[in-house]
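Possible regression after last week's pipeline update?

I re-ran a chain I had predicted before the update to compare outputs. Posting the input and the new output here so someone can diff against the archived version. Not blocking, just want to make sure nothing changed silently.
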Amino acid sequence: MINKIVYKNELIGLKITKIRKGTLPITDAKESLQIVTLNHPKGIILKAHMHIPKKRVTYQLQECIVIKKGRVLVTLYGSDKKQIKNLYLTQGQAFILFKGGVEIKMLANSEIFELKNGPFIEDKVLI
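New output (post-update):
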């Protein structure tokens, strides 16, 4: 299941709580961070492949957090820095931030993967 978070007609992010069967793109092709879910039975082989190097230009940092273990509270902020929503995430769930800001509070001992488009540039602004 995927829940869209929209604020002032702008897609802020997606909360992913369940992965459907198959190989499915989650993000729109125009987004900087591309997320695809994979849910296949034992024995399925996804063919070996490579990607041809191509120039990609992005202007918006996007990030995805995947909760490996624990429970967190994610507070979302719009591009105008106003708090817009609280989300609770637990093991196996993920959140993709497209725009705006985010605060993450650990509600239990937690292990999280955070993925971002790169290369890394120090551009963090506290809200």
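Follow-up from reviewer: compared with the archived run. DSSP finds no helices and ten strands in the chain. Marking as no regression found.
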